[in-house]
Amino acid sequence: MDEERAVRIIVTGRVQGVSYRWATEQEATRLGLDGWVRNEPDGSVLAYAVGPRDAVDALVAWCHEGPPAARVAGVDATDVDPREGVGREVREGGGFRTLG
């Protein structure tokens, strides 16, 4: 069985107004992850994802490219405990969704 991983992902660059959130939701759902994604006031995109390590790793790798119109400058993926805090809240919500 694949070990569970939870991450907070911050993506910078031209990632707002280019369907980045929608595409992230679609990719995370395809991978079977729980979590959410939203635009931040500073122009970045913030996401939390929880699921099997291989699937989370695949989403993080995908975030470096994003949808065709995006121009990703950076991706910061920080592990969080899937049993506590945001990881638990994401898992309790079930599925992957766009916020805001």
Automatic annotation (TrEMBL):
Residue stretches making up the Acylphosphatase-like domain: 6-100
Keyword field: Hydrolase
Catalysed reactions, semicolon-separated: an acyl phosphate + H2O = a carboxylate + phosphate + H(+)
UniProt xrefs under InterPro entries: Acylphosphatase, Acylphosphatase-like_dom, Acylphosphatase-like_dom_sf, Acylphosphatase_CS
EC number: 3.6.1.7
Active site: R21, N39
Region annotated Disordered, chain positions: 75-100
Ranges annotated as biased composition (Basic and acidic residues): 80-94
Cleaved signal peptide residues: none
SUPFAM superfamilies referenced in this protein's UniProt entry, alphabetically: Acylphosphatase/BLUF domain-like (SSF54975)
Family (UniProt): Belongs to the acylphosphatase family.
Protein name per the record: acylphosphatase
Species of origin: Nocardioides lentus
